[in-house]
Amino acid sequence: MIKRLLPLYLLIFIFGCDPKDDPQPDTPVAALELTNLAYGSGSQQQIDVFLPEGRNLANTPLILYIHGGGWIQGSKEEFLPFKSSMNTLLSGFAFASINYSLFNVSTFENPFPTQENDVIEAIEYIESMKAEWDIEGGLILVGASAGGHLALLHAYKHQAIGNIQSVVALFPPTELSELYDSDETAAFLLSGLLEGTPETNPTLYNESSPVNYISPSSVPSIFFHGDQDLVVPISQSELLAKTLQENGVIYEFQKIPGQGHGFTPEVYPSVLTAASQFILENQ
């Protein structure tokens, strides 16, 4: 008798369950913000992550923002004023912003390439967390000033780490020996950061300059520079454009008339729009 009833009970179990009791696989994944995550053991190695609603492991690209501040100051919060616009312009993208170890001009702690290595660690952490965050897709690097330098350096020198798809830079240093010669302030900072001058430590200056790693296989690049920049001369971006062109790399260079180091609020909407269009076209 018991054997005869078993199939009946099994059918009741299979077909009698309330569908509302099952997980809903079609429910969109909710948006999620994760702040001050540690991507390394250093006190400044922190990352904020902004994951979009409906993200998936099929195609959710991530944009990593690297802040400026002359390698000696600044924070990941620099991204926040751009976050709303970027969400609108690049719907469905995930975003992240990092702190990195800052060079201390008094104690000479954290000289280069500490910052370069922090970017590598942050990207390796992102790669390790993709499944947990429900994202998969290309990684795009964006940075301003010193952050633009770090974004370009990683994109050209370490492109395979994170499978970088494209890079966006605002008023970036690109050739540090020439930047050293541009004025006394730059010379003072770089002689500490790079532990010497271009004459006494030429290897580190060469290894820390993004233009030295450009090849025909370099990633598509877009960059913006004010023609009145007195901190990072526009010649740094002009040299970048020349080197990219010589190597046949896809790039776009926008000179921003009347702008210095850091753009006025009226300029950023058009810059963000152009950068977003470039990213989408080069996915």
Automatic annotation (TrEMBL):
UniProt GO molecular function: hydrolase activity
Annotated TM spans: none
Keyword list, A-Z: Hydrolase
Gene3D superfamilies cross-referenced by the UniProt entry: alpha/beta hydrolase (3.40.50.1820)
InterPro entries named in the record: AB_hydrolase_fold, BD-FAE-like_dom, GDXG_lipolytic_enzyme
Pfam families per the UniProt record, alphabetical: BD-FAE
Sequence ranges assigned to domain BD-FAE-like in this UniProt record: 47-244
PANTHER family assigned: AB HYDROLASE SUPERFAMILY PROTEIN C4A8.06C, ALPHA_BETA HYDROLASE
Protein name according to UniProt: Acetyl esterase/lipase
Organism (species): Algoriphagus zhangzhouensis
Source lineage: Bacteria, Pseudomonadati, Bacteroidota, Cytophagia, Cytophagales
